[in-house]
Amino acid sequence: IRPLDPLNVGISRNPLYTDYAYHKYQEKLCKVKRRYPKIDVEDDEDDEVSVIDFWYTDPKDGAIWNAIVICGEFAKKPTKTDYMHIPIVVGFGDVSNYLDSKWAALPLIYPIIDLWKYQCRLTSQMATGNLYYFWPHVAVMNENGQDVGDIVVKPGVTKQYPMGTKFDIIQPRPDLPIVNTIEQRVTAAMQDSTFPRVMFGDAGNIQSGYGVNSLAGAARGRINPFRLNLEASYQRANEIMFSLVENFGRSKGVSVWGKDAATNNVYRVTLTKEDIDGQYDNLVTLEPLVPQDTMQKETLALRKVEMGIMSKQTYRDKVNAEVMPPDE
């Protein structure tokens, strides 16, 4: 599995299947030669070379072909494979067609990249401004022209100075409130454009449980488009995995390991060709881990159970936040 660089990947789909997909990446020549020893590239072993992994579908019989191109030469000539699908999954955070295609592949933190740098500069300005208050400039003058000597400030120390010596404290007053206001606006912009703090357990000035749950719901809505596209990408990856198991799993199948959330036990299942039988459909649901206060809801539900309004089974299945073992 190789993570894709979204700016160096291309894919073409039609209503029935994927026409072609390719991924271009940079790799050191020494690593490339280990995998493709026959390539004729005379660069230094530590130099990075361009590698293009190209897959396409034969429109006549639906066969999947693969080729590897390194520095403009075939490291692997077009070869027919046993794959049922092109093993490249491309998913974007924003699929709306309103700007250049590269904007669809921006990371979630893209809006705060420049804001973060600006916030760091503002913080540095505030720290520097505080130094003017902490260490003001002291000007020493003597009317008789006598040498005052070095001035060393120490706690609990008294020093005699010549007659006529005056001390003037020159203290610049930088406008820190303005810098602080700008910093707060930058922080608010970072919150509005990416993830609110409630996703990490900080509800701000809201102390009530319902307020936290309301903010948590807003946080889920903020990331919902990304979550849906990520779920679709996982579903596509699962389809490819099922087709690989069906074609390469042989009679023994492939072992898949999992962990039961209720009992915390590790279990294993075996996927065979007969289990899949050409059925690749699957449903992936991702649940954002957003902190929320469920104590009030659970307390009210327990009262309903005690009064006979709600059954224990309904409380366990619909209200209780913890996953319970089936034999509880």
Provide the fold topology.
Elements: E1 9-13, E2 18-28, H1 29-35, E3 48-57, E4 64-70, E5 73-80, H2 113-134, E6 137-142, E7 165-170, H3 176-193, H4 209-222, H5 224-248, E8 254-259, E9 266-271, H6 273-276, H7 295-306, H8 312-319
Antiparallel strand pairs: 1-2, 2-3, 3-4, 4-5, 6-7, 8-9
Report what the structure shows.
This protein has 8 helices and 9 strands. The chain has helices spanning 29-35, 113-134, 176-193, 209-222, 224-248, 273-276, 295-306, 312-319; strands spanning 9-13, 18-28, 48-57, 64-70, 73-80, 137-142, 165-170, 254-259, 266-271. The chain has a 5-stranded antiparallel beta sheet. A two-stranded antiparallel sheet has the order 6-7. It starts with 8 loop residues before the first strand and ends in a 9-residue tail after the last helix.
Strand tally: 9
Q: Biggest β-sheet: count, sense, barrel? A: 5 strands, antiparallel
Helix-strand pattern: EEHEEEHEEHHHEEHHH
User: What is the mean predicted local confidence, pLDDT?
Assistant: 83
Shape: flat
Structural class: alpha+beta
